[in-house]
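Appendix B. One record, verbatim.
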Amino acid sequence: MKNIVFVVLHYENLKDTEDCIKSLLKYLSNPAVKIVLVDNGSVNGKLSQISESFSNQNGIYFLRSEKNLGFANGNNIGYRYAKEKLNADIIILANNDLIFKQENFIEELENAENKTGFDVAGPNIISLVDGKNQNPVNVMYHSLKDLKKRIFKDSVLLLSSYVNLDKLLQKIFAKEIPEVPYQEGMDFQLHGACMFFANEYLKNYDGLYEKTFMYGEENILKYIATRDNMNMAFLDNLTVYHKEGSSTEAVYGKKIGKRKFYYKWNLNSCKLLKKMMENEKLSCKEM
């Protein structure tokens, strides 16, 4: 029996986190399953406001950062606790807006790990907004050339957002770079809302790449997994449900402040990946 630990990163939104926890409780009947909840510096919606509701439930651990560390470092608090304190064999990083309905999720996860020996993996992620499967995702950057195009795009969008022209340019860029639907057998990367870590990744890494703040973590994970010859798998026998929609509006947001936030931090992550690729003189296509 493998030790399986869910790490759920919480920030402000108590309702989503509470719904996620409740959907996970059924798995705690298995003594090898644990849940680690990380409050990532919430101010108004501190996790302590709902922790009492689950205080009598064995197998749940509450951690807190006093400041918002961003997606990667917030998750890494829980990842390291799961690895070092709970001796996890499989760590699941799960967004707090996920719902777990599958009754045999743990059994199917163990079967998939035994069958594939994955180092990194992800399940079907079904949007509760439009019913679409958000996983897996097309590989965004096959080369430095691809990455530089994205850096240019986000730089233009960030600058244009200050005069509120970015939404118009989004449409132009979308026409220039059409989305290619995922097909069986295509190279892929994973959606960051739900990711599994085991074997070589768990052995060699203490979490996600820590220099990012928000966005682009999946691209860096794909690069690292490919570079280090790790087994990245898509597990279609597992399904989770995501409250966030898969539309462009869900990514960019309706308000200018949210769009600027996205451009800024996605651009930062792209530049970090570019530096990694240049320093190693290696592109995803060349590996």
